[in-house]
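Propose amino acids for all 285 sites.
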């Protein structure tokens, strides 16, 4: 037979309740402690993450600043390099001009737009560079008509028709083949002066119709070469032209001032009042 459970007395119940309450408080305390530790760990972890992030940001900032300094340094160095190269070019151009002046010539510059060879030839033949398109067309047509002469000398295995098509375009640089074609076309010998280098000569005629003299700069630009006395003549003409322009400006300015004075005199309020009084007096009469 199963044992009968003894009924708890009132004191036992109170004791049991006290023990349960104590155990509950103990468990709550442990749970709270555990949560506090967990929160503290989370805070520490967040703090570490934040510190790591700050460290990374600081590293990135330092890296960015270093990159910025390096870029700025490179930029300054490039600027100094360009300035130095510009100065060297200016000095070289000045020396080139002086060396040409010593033998009685001066450089008449043309626009550097890819048409400089044809502009320079136009300047030599016509006295100005305005006919460069015409000389390009004539040159290309001559090369087309004499394909057997020019085709073997085209570089980079470029087909002859493609080369002709390219050279027909505005601003396409002309070179040795075009100089030879222009020489034959114009029945002219070419003398091309290059700074501190031997003169480049294309001499196809013993008695040419014209000798065309050019200068070649930095492997990319042609200019026209003229006798020094022409420069002196040009300078005088320019001075006279400027003088006439100044005289015309002074004349126009003085005429304008006279017109303004006349206008101001015609708009004199005293004259208007006098006219009004005379009209009123006439009406009264």
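Proposal:
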């Amino acid at each position: 037979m199963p044992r009968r459970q003894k009924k708890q007395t009132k004191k036992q119940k109170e004791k049991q309740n006290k023990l349960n309450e104590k155990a509950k408080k103990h468990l709550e305390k442990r749970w709270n402690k555990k949560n506090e530790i967990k929160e503290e760990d989370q805070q520490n972890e967040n703090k570490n993450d934040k510190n790591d992030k700050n460290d990374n940001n600081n590293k990135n900032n330092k890296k960015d600043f270093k990159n910025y300094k390096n870029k700025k340094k490179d930029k300054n160095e490039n600027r100094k390099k360009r300035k130095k190269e510009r100065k060297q070019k200016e000095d070289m151009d000045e020396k080139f001009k002086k060396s040409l002046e010593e033998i009685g010539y001066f450089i008449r510059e043309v626009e550097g737009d890819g048409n400089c060879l044809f502009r320079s030839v136009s300047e030599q033949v016509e006295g100005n560079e305005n006919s460069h398109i015409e000389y390009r067309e004539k040159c290309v047509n001559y090369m087309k008509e004499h394909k057997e002469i020019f085709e073997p000398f085209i570089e980079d295995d470029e087909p002859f028709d493609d080369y002709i098509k390219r050279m027909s375009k505005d601003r396409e640089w002309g070179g040795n083949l075009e100089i030879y074609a222009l020489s034959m076309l114009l029945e002219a010998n070419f003398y091309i002066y290059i700074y501190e280098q031997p003169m480049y000569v294309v001499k196809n005629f013993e008695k040419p119709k014209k000798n065309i003299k050019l200068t070649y700069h930095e492997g990319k630009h042609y200019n026209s070469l003229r006798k020094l006395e022409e420069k002196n003549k040009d300078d005088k003409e320019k001075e006279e032209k400027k003088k006439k322009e100044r005289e015309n400006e002074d004349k126009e300015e003085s005429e304008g001032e006279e017109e303004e004075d006349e206008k101001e005199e015609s708009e004199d309020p005293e004259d208007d009042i006098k006219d009004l009084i005379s009209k009123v007096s006439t009406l009264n009469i």
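The mean pLDDT is 82. The longest strand covers residues 210-217.
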